[in-house]
Amino acid sequence: MNRTSYQTPLHEPIEVDATFSRTILGHCRPICFRTNSGREVIISEIGLVHPKYDGLKTTFAFDVTDGSTDYRITLDSESLNWFLEFEGDQYA
Question: What is the pTM of this model?
């Protein structure tokens, strides 16, 4: 079972529904997202969550899946905008 490699970064703005809590997954948990084309992806599992620091700006990357496709979505903590960075099949 091989993972396919992610392709060229998309950096596509998306709309995300998320919950914020002090006790669940480091405060923020995305639930679903919608692309500009109107496609809705319901997140079934969150893998890694990792911050990226650029001076005072922090971007949080979430590796998520809907059960059939893997995605990386990011939250820009300065602008509070979400982006779809990568999309790829879960298994080759």
Answer: 0.82
